[in-house]
C-alpha cells in the first residue's frame, strides 16, 4: 500500500489527437440546443399571445371557436414539451451529462434516457401533436361546412393517412428497439 496520494488520471489521457477531436466534436451540438431554447422562448410568447386573444374574445366567440383556441394552446404546449425532450434528452445523450441525480426537479424519464428511448418518446410526441392537428382539422371542416371550408376531402384524407403513418412508424421504432434488447432471463 502506497503512502503517497494517487494522482487522478485526466479523462482524456491516452486519447490520440484524432479520437480526441472526434469525441470533442459533440460540443458542436451545443449551439443547436441553445437555439432550441430560444425557440422554446418563442413558443412561450406565442402561447401567451394566444391565451390573451382567447381571454379577450371569450365572451364574443362560440363554444366551438373556444375549443379550437384551446386545442391551439394544447398544440403549443405539446410542441414545447417536444422541445424540452429534445433539448434535455439530446444534450444528456449526445453531448454531456447534466448530473441531476438527487435534484427534486429531475424528470423521471431522464434517469434512463438513451438514443432508443429518446426516439420512441419523440415519435409519441409527434403522434400527439399530429392528433391535435387532425382533431382541429375535423372540427374546423365540420364547423365551416362544405362551402367555406379551407379543407378539401382529399386534404383531410391525406392528413389522416399521414397521421396513421406516424403511428405505424412509432410502432416500427418500438418493435426494432425491442428486438435489439437482450432476452429477459427465464422465470422458474
Give a nutshell description of this structure.
This protein is an all-alpha fold and 188 residues long. Helix content is 70%, strand content 0%.
What this model shows, in words?
By secondary structure, the chain is mainly alpha-helical. It has one domain. 70% of the residues lie in helices and 0% in strands. The chain is extended and about 70 Å long. The model has no long low-confidence stretch (mean pLDDT 84).
Question: Helices and strands in order, then pairings?
Answer:
Layout: H1 17-24, H2 30-57, H3 63-95, H4 115-148, H5 153-180
Comma- or semicolon-separated keywords:
mainly alpha; extended; 5 helices
Structural class: mainly alpha
Q: How many distinct beta strands? A: 0
- Beta-strand share of residues: under 5%
The coarse overall form would be: extended
> Could you tell me the mean pLDDT?
84
Q: What integer value in Å does the Rg equal?
A: 24 Å
- Secondary structure: helix percent: 55-70%
Low-confidence stretches: none
Q: What gap, in angstroms, lies between the N and C termini?
A: 46 Å
Largest sheet: none
Order of helices and strands: HHHHH
Number of domains: 1
Number of helices: 5
